[in-house]
Sequence to fold (327 residues):
Amino acid sequence: MFGVEISGLGIYIPQKRLTNFDLEKIMDTSDEWIYQRTGIKYRYVVEDGLSTSDLALFAAKEALNEAEKHGIKDIDYIILATNSPDYIIPATSSVLQGKLGISAGSMDVFSGCAAFVYALIVASSLIKSGLSKNVLLVGAEAISKYLDWSDRSVSILLGDGAGAFVLSRINDKDRGIIDCNVGTDGSKAELIYIPAGGTKEPFSEKSIEDKKIYLRMQGRDVFKSVVSILPSEIKKLLDKNNLKPNDIDLYIFHQANIRIINAVMENLGIDEKKVYNNIEKYANTSAASVPIAFYEAYRKNMIGPNSLVLFSAFGAGFTWANVLWKL
Ligand code: ACO
Fold:
């Protein structure tokens, strides 16, 4: 068994920023409603002509450059977590490989906003087991392309962006992933979904007319499901590892709604200094939110060698995943 080190980090945020006040001009909403209900003030939206693989490429390049300074040259796998792929076929990680021009296997992980945390588990397992030395792991979303801007209940919540980790094998087996827990409740698959475009309801003129090509969500039910599941799942993971909530140095939660994060913190008695949030600036960037938040916290020196980090995410599926990590 080996350990896992984060040898490179990168992010990419698109240029175009939309404030809540910008949204007030195109739909019946208000800055006050959005900020109070979600904690969001701004979101970034990808420019026309760019797609998820482009955002992934920019974040990946920064992470690969940093890893190269640590002597990392060869990448065995590219794992891309996304819910807004360039195409239905092929996987966006293949497109990213082509753009990077590096020799590596590739796969996508498609498990809702929890996809990056799931992909972190897969990548770490490949490295820990000795099957791989270096993995490029990217969470990237151009999810704004799936939004119906006349649907104020969903479109105000999301934004685009990308974050990347290069994960590398080290001999100290106590570093990297320590433990994880995951779960799915597929009976709630239609809480967050795009009805048309898959094999169940292929694209048609009717699906476009009925706006079934856009993301739909039952926000209130999502909210209730998350706050009833996540605290007990995190507690189970901490108990299993003989840890108390405030033994963790930093929590990186999926940035979906500040009220959800606050409810989880309150339930577990987590000190607010141990949580890094940036939902105000970026909104919910789906599978990109965890790596973007981690990148910012790391660059602000909120954590360092040997820090204990807990990554926690939930999303469409309905899926959730928690990872305990030692830097
Ligand atoms: N602006 C103004 N009013 C609005 C807006 C808006 N943007 N959206 C809805 N409203 C109205 C509704 O029409 C409703 O009006 P009514 O009372 O006259 O019927 C009222 O505000 C309350 O609506 P609710 O949907 O009940 O509001 P709620 O307090 O539940 O907040 C929200 C909605 C913010 C979506 C919340 O439920 C939430 O954050 N849920 C979780 C979302 C989430 O985490 N999704 C996960 C991931 S997304 C993904 O995986 C891709």
